[in-house]
Amino acid sequence: MxxxxxxxxxxxxxxxxxxxxxxxxxxxxxxxxxxxRSAQLLEHATGETVVIGAKEIEARQxxxxxxxxxxxxxxxxxxxxxxxxxxxxxxxxxxPSDRRALVLxxxxxxxxxxxxSVLLGGIPTDSIRQTEILFGPMxxxxxxxxxxxxxxxxxxxxxxTEFGFNVGYGDAFESGKAAADVQKAYIxxxxxxxxxxxxxxxxxxxxxxxxxxxxxxxxxxxNSNGAIPTSSEMGAGTFLLGQKGDNTWKEHGASLKLEQRVxxxxxxxxxxxxxxxxxxxxxxxxxxxxxxxxxxxxxxSFAGGDSDYSRQIFHAGFDSKLGIGRLNxxxxxxxxxxxxxxxATTGTAFGGPGRISDSPSESTTxxxxxxxxxxxxxxxxxxxxxxDSADTKDxxxxxxxxxxxKTALYSSASGKMYLNGAYLQDNWLLAPNLTxxxxxxxxxxxxxxxxxxxxxxxxxxxxxxxxxxSPKLGASWRVTDAFTLRTSAGKAFHAPTVYDLYRSSTLTxxxxxxxxxxxxxxxxxxxxxxxxxxxxxxxxxxxxxxxEIDNLIYLGPRKPGPGGKxxxxxxxxxxxxxxGITFSVTHHFDADNRVFANFTxxxxxxxxxxxxxxxxxxxxxxxxxxxxxIGFERRHGNWLLSSSGRYASKQYSDDANxxxxxxxxxxxxxxxxxxxxxxxxxxxxLTASLAVSNLxxxxxxxYYAAPGRAxxxxxxxxx
Length: 719
Known about the structure:
Strand content: over 45%
Number of domains: 1
Shape: globular
Structural class: mainly beta
Number of strands: 44
Largest sheet: 27 strands, mixed
Radius of gyration: 25 Å
CATH class: Mainly Beta
């Protein structure tokens, strides 16, 4: 969370060299910002926005990019396996799932072209200069993945010749409770030449032996002992049989970014990013012993398959004076060459039949817009295009422990998605203290070439098409120099992906069935809020938000399927509603020291769902009802001390909220976690730090056994 708030588009401008960045410590009345992709005074912004600056990022230990967001009011970041979590698992202000938020890196969409997921593994937080969050439906400017809002991670660019590195090592305080033997290294180098060309390269590497995050539960095997009675997440009696092996992780990545301001009328930029990571499992541990031999008893449930992911993103763009305004163009191409995982179907924990699934995909995007100031009006006109293609294949393995032991194609799913959008937005300075904003976007969605196969046959799926109008209206009224009221209302949509439409999945306890008849989701939202600088150095912010979601893409109830295994069909739930408040208080003692606290309350409810009547009246999955954060940052001389605490109430993964058990595997428990960091700067080049996560060593489950107390020490050099 940051006291200094501004819209996402400022991050795009600064990332692409269009304007210099205002200091994160500027006051609200002097900050120049934009929600129209052009400069605008902050008090004229109509939607709630947050920017998290470099000093805040430096003050905290951030293992994942989403850790940068986890103390922000209105943002929920799921703990999962902590630094081992591949998907971000976050929700923006009552809109569940990261798939319904648009996540950008320097303005480039990080959305996966296969499942619409946001995969951020392998990207180092050291590269991030600031992170910006624009809440609320943003389809009017950004299209169909922006139902809940937009998050933009902005990377650094050099102003002079620079070189630096960061190396670190960490471990759990108690063996087996958190990631063990954590090793990380990061290097960066860059320069800015006399002709204005800026170049920056980064490289990163990391690995950990992990910890036993996944447990094995089920019926006690016959003629055995040692199984521990426990409960399932549904409250039914079961047994803890043991744990899978340590969840290991390895990553490496690289990036190259170029930017040149040729003259005042033209700037170009280009970049490349590599994400590459692998996770696997060590030897499992069984608590069960055979009565006859006393040897450990393992079932195939103890098996832990490997997984690999590799993605390259290329992007290029420019901004140029065109007539009375400026033309901006950004194009990108994403190539996921590996997105594979192995599952064991039968056999043993150490080998036997299984399957390997690989889901390579490609995405191509183009976003171009023209912006001009016309008296009291600030006008933006744009066009956007996106194409996604994916081709998933599952092969049987004679030995799941050997990915090269493929025997035959088991199933497949492929298809393409096309999105074309045109948008218009105007910021009208009706009076010096009153701004009105209006925006409208039209999107046309097409899914084509849908094909799938499984043991029951080969299927071709008809083309699917739909269109959506996404309007947005807003107003900002600066009542006094210290108090601003803002309100906005809008509509947004999210189209089903290739994964949603055509891909069926096999899980441990049930199967998920694809649904080629899915319709796009839509949301109607409005908010009312205010920003009050109640005293020198302090700010109070409060917002009421309301979301009404139609055709929510959801997993239906479990029903008996072939082979005695339950099946859950992807469905369009009829209607759901979320509403709530965010409230935050921040006090800056000076530019380097602050304290903060915030609270988020989210009421969520399924209103209509003919496919799953038991879910009506229940809370939506993946959303805690209450969240809170509190913390401080204290700089004194060469020392920096920071600490923050995060609370989240219980969440549900079952649409009928039947997973009410707590403190057991697969439950989503309430938790309060404290993280702290201490740094010492020896000189302007060299800094050492020690961070402790989960300082109070809270034990809880976020489906997996959440990480316990751990430490991480690092050394940073910057020239």
